Amino acid sequence: MAASVLPDVGPAAPEYWVEACRHLMKRDRVMKKLIPLHGGVCLQSRGDAFVTLARSIVGQQISVKAAQSVWDRFAVLPKKMLPSQVLKLKVDDMRAAGLSARKVEYLVDLALHFANNQVHVDAWAEMDDEAIISELVAIRGIGRWTAEMFLIFHLMRPNVLPLDDLGLQNGISHCYFSGEPVSRSEIREVAATWAPFCSVATWYIWRSLDPAPVAY
């Protein structure tokens, strides 16, 4: 594969990104066409672990715009967005920021898990994806999909395949099956050629639906 057809991803790209693009373009006809269309952008990590997960809880089941509005009001309540500071907040103040009673409970549980070292942040680098998912889904309000998005966007794990992600399902349907609905087994079949870079392929499938990079 000639290097000239690989996208220019810039210095902020994960170290595996160019290798992943080369692998995907060589093995997958859709990726061969899709990847060169989206040069200059790539996956980038955002914020710290606690803030990233807190934002994911705040944003559940509401629009991106509404989530940002609630987050902006919530984020000014603690002196600093740390688990210990969130645990000092009054429930009434959190509710007044626009959080539902359930999301307040979820955020408190998240803060407790971090404050009590029930998540092993310092060990994540040595832990496999499933072990990290198991830790995260033990927190109220965090399901497998949220944990998988965390693996992709925060920990930058290269080989995550989020089977329950609607964007991935719709993108594979459009790109590989002429718009026909796809099953989980069909997604796995397509992704068999992507490994060990399913996260990268998923990111480009998202780009096929929306060229603007996903922010999580």
Q: Quickly name the level 1 CATH class of the largest domain.
A: Mainly Alpha
Bulk shape: elongated
What is the average per-residue confidence, as pLDDT, rounded to a whole number?
91
Which percent range describes the beta-strand content? under 5%
Might you state the CATH topology name of the largest domain? Answer: Endonuclease III, domain 1
Uncertain residue segments: none
**Element-by-element helix/strand order:** HHHHHHHHHHHH
Count of individual beta strands: 0
Instruction: Estimate nothing, just give the exact number of structural domains.
Output: 2
What is the rounded distance between the termini?
32 Å
The helical percent reads 40-55%
Q: Helix segment count?
A: 12
CATH architecture heading of the largest domain:
Orthogonal Bundle
CATH superfamily of the largest domain: Hypothetical protein, domain 2
C-alpha Rg (nearest Å): 19 Å
Major sheet details: none
Structural class: mainly alpha
Protein name: DNA-3-methyladenine glycosylase II
GO molecular function, one term: DNA-7-methylguanine glycosylase activity
GO biological process, one term: base-excision repair, AP site formation
Family: Belongs to the alkylbase DNA glycosidase AlkA family.
Short account of what is shown:
The protein is mainly α.
Structural key phrases:
about 220 residues, Endonuclease Iii, domain 2, Endonuclease III, domain 1, 2 domains, 12 helices, about 55% helix, elongated, HhH-GPD_domain, Alkylbase_DNA_Glycosylase/TA, EC 3.2.2.21
